[in-house]
């Protein structure tokens, strides 16, 4: 025993000494390398100076620099995972107006109502406990099965709806989701009667945010490595799965109207909606869409994320979410359809106050994507960081997707929903109102006079009357 103890002590001592030598040696090594690099930067001509890379990255942006190199390496548009880099909509220039005496704040935030009804004129409206939904994110073509299950389960725990996205139908997602919106894709899959009748609402997907109606192709080589995905997409071996830029069966107003009526009949009266990306042609598009008698319209601003393949082209397609929301609400009011056709809005909405501001400007509900994924991953990111990005946990092509824990992800997402709604309730309480859907433009002001005039809200420098 004594010899064993001495052996252990010697081993521990050896490891400690080795560690100390490593630290001391490592410090000297780091100092040597730093000195060489520092001297080179401070003495070499600019055209051969390593620091010029920093100036270049600062001038054109580190993201554009990396994407340029990816194009040069692969000869294809780089697949940017989350879309636009910046939020263009001026949400930060809007502020809520709390009350004190002229209207009394409520005493209990839990008394502030949060429920919402999507498609109130449908035979079976979609009734949710909160006005925040999961946006459409596809299984297989983007996210893994585990990720989709976790998103659905988290939505169920929070009392809201999941959305299939434009990928193939995943039965496990249907099982996890109490309320499920099925996207009617421009592709040829997930359109059978059984899938449609499994939905709580149908969303006809004309396009989305900064991706617009751009086509999508999943090459045969990729499908060959994933036979399950190929079968779900209904593609034969050696074929490419395609989502065309538009519905091949819908070319006229009348054909769109017939499609909405057909889906409504097949599903027995659940809400049928139409989703499109925001565009400067918004009113012209809405004019045609509303003639088809949908139960809801979902508009995705340019800030909306996508698992697309257009790289920086995605920075230039579409319209900022805030402006699209305001214009869509004005158009619905002009057509006297407010309260009849629900308006869902998403794209670059990341916080509870973003959500509440969108409701105040006329959205009946908001949908989220990127921020939902970040909440979903939460601390599971440490399973791959710093050697891999967290996306490898959640994407279907991720190398470590099996490490993702469904229950842990669902709980994290449900917590995000819960905290966000609580913050919205507290803010609504300070406005002296008792339901999220009663917050409106009168509760907002702006530091930007031009924005205030456009929205019809008070400029912060003007007195209230």
By CATH, the topology of the largest domain is TIM Barrel
Low-confidence regions: none
What is the makeup of the main sheet?
8 strands, parallel
Q: Any idea of the CATH class of the largest domain?
A: Alpha Beta
What is the count of distinct domains?
Answer: 2
The percent range for strand residues is 5-15%
Quick one: CATH superfamily of the largest domain?
A: Aldolase class I
**CATH architectural category of the largest domain:** Alpha-Beta Barrel
Number of helices: 16
Number of strands: 15
Overall pLDDT level: 87
Radius of gyration: 26 Å
**Share of residues in helices:** 40-55%
> What overall geometry do the principal axes of the alpha carbons give?
globular
Strand order of the largest sheet: 4-13-12-11-10-7-6-5
User: Structural class from helices and strands?
Assistant: alpha/beta
Span between termini:
89 Å
List strands and helices in order, with pairings:
Elements: H1 2-43, H2 52-60, H3 62-74, E1 94-96, E2 116-118, E3 126-128, E4 132-134, H4 145-158, E5 162-163, H5 171-176, E6 180-184, H6 193-197, E7 201-205, E8 216-218, H7 220-224, H8 227-233, E9 241-243, H9 253-267, E10 272-277, H10 282-291, E11 296-300, H11 321-334, E12 342-346, H12 352-360, E13 365-368, H13 370-377, H14 391-394, H15 406-430, E14 444-446, H16 449-455, E15 458-459
Parallel strand pairs: 4-13, 5-6, 6-7, 7-10, 10-11, 11-12, 12-13, 14-15
Antiparallel strand pairs: 1-14, 2-3, 8-9
Helix pairs in contact: 2-3, 4-15, 12-15, 13-15
